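Regression test attached.
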Amino acid sequence: MNAPKPFPLNAWYATAWSHEIARELSARTICGKNVVLYRRLDGAVAALEDACWHRLLPLSLGHLKGDDVRCGYHGLVFNSAGRCSYMPAQKTINPSACVRAYPVAERHRLVWLWPGDPALADPAKIPDFHWNDGKQWVGEGGTFYQLKCDYRLVIDNLMDLTHETYVHAGSIGDEAITAAPFEVTHTGNTATMTRWMIDIEPPPFWGRQLARPGRVDRWQIVTFQAPSVVVGDVGVALTHTGAPQGDRSQGVSGAFLAAISPETETTCHYFWNFVRNYRKDDAQLTSELQRAHVYGGAGVYDQDHRVLEAQQAAIANNPRSPFYDLNIDAGALWARRLIDRMLADEQAPVSANVAAE
Amino acid sequence: MAKPMERISARLRATRDLTPDVRLFEIEPDRPLVNVTPGSHIDVLVPTDGRPQLRSYSLLGPYTDGLYRIAVKRLASSRGGSAGMWRLKVGERLTIFEPRNSFELSYGRPDYLLLAGGIGITPIYAMALALNQANANFRLLYAAHSRRDLALADELTTYVGERLQLFVGEEGQRIDIGSEIAQLDTRGELYVCGPFGMLETAKQLWSQAGRPTAHLRYETFGNTGGFADAPFKIRIPRLSLEIDVPAHRSMLEALEDAGVDMIFGCRRGECGLCVLPILEASAEVDHRDVFFSGEERAMNSKVCTCVSRAASGCVTIDTPDRTPDQRHSSKVS
Ligand code: FES
Ligand code: FES
Ligand SMILES: [Fe+2]
């Protein structure tokens, strides 16, 4: 058997923004599976294996024909369940002819795909990403498609925000981050890193958001949902107004959202957003925040992008077992532990249904 | 064009007789293999009196404990495969090939009808369990000649309960396929595995009901037909050849044995690549393919050599060989 892949297949992965899937064929690779996506006439999204049954031509090079896809080579037609419904030059259809249809579901403005055993694809298991719905929280968001790093490096990055001090100096970085203690907790499928910085000078970015003079309490409560979603509850409030006790009325709250889908073992698609629940109708603020994160290489996430790709390249060049760990990696290590557990469960034998003895 | 298949050595770990003539085999591959989806089959190199023969068997349920389970019916006329399987002793080694699935189950349909006849229960069994686990809306109708021929019926009753309905032919019970189709949700799928006649009836009623062709799923390993397997002769005037087809060999195998150049794809009556024109037939040709339409079959002008055969007598056929020297050079056994 091939070496096990670093990503569980029995999971929902963000595959596209809902607005990206229309009445045309879009190709993606998720967990090493080539997929073609399109919207059916009834509005539902369909996802098929992107390789024709006949001669493997990617179906994404073909044409959408009603709810079906016509291969662009010899014209075989597949319906949205992957069944062949037309074969040229014969009266019948070979019953074996089909391509795999992947379970897909739309939720929280994203299309989620289940690359593993379709029998286990329960939409109730789609990660909680409701901050992205565009209702209580607003933000534009985007995707780094084909980011050249193992998806777990992005999770490491988000589960330890001490890097902000060094990677994002001048915006959200602050020496206070490295000085403040943090706590890591976990459940069966989540890991949470909590850090409170009490009575500090607001870092430049947050000072502008709050737009009120005075020192602040700053929080970062970052939750990982196995195997690949991270939501960071972040913000500041005027100090001594009760934010650590739950009263955030004298502050501003935001959330960074990350759904990171493995493309291959060393590349991933990083669906991100930064949302807020204040000045929700301020379109100019929305686009400012968007630009603060990704803006032709100058945004905060652009800085992470550079670090992550350089790190992956270095891993390839340095054969030593990749990392040494620090105290600050506790959140990332719990996240990886939960991923490893999913991987082990996927490979574990379960009892069969009929036995000879 | 299939990828070349990799041989896997394996061991027969255990057997159990499910009925007087259906035996369950537990096969343990030497190295762990991938999990399989419902409807998958493995090919087994079955030791027979002559040379080993390749046979396809559906896998019963998921491969999750390192064992492949298949059920094989002992048939007088199954081209020698089943008898070879039945002679295997526990502990014996055998060669298998990686599982494939050409009878894939779709998930997320509002309704399913599963139809099994006799040993055709094997892929349907795995599907019923999977659908049950997925909490899908489905019914399984399972027919056999006698009560004791209903292999796996007890297991099915345990797992799927009320969704299963059994039909015993000798007690006069028959599946009313037409009215079952009428009851199925219009977006539902029908899966059939059983004797050729059952499949033909289901296909006919399905299209009469105006249901989409792609929603009728079936698999046939081409080993049953209207007549029992019997020896017959092939004549090929173009090559001045006369070939005997024994009861346990297919026409295609006999042609290959005789050195006739043949192309083929599926070897189970689906793709039409092994088709040759019939020039004359002294007895009825038992068409067992699913490649030809009903009208094409009725014209009886071509034959799928991998699965179809003559009931007896002699069929005269042609080949596409236009080599200038029409005399066949390979040795004729
Ligand atoms: S490759 Fe798609 S029809 Fe031939
Ligand atoms: S080889 Fe495919 S029909 Fe005979
Ligand atoms: Fe960062």
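Expected vs. actual: identical. Chain A has a mean pLDDT of 94.
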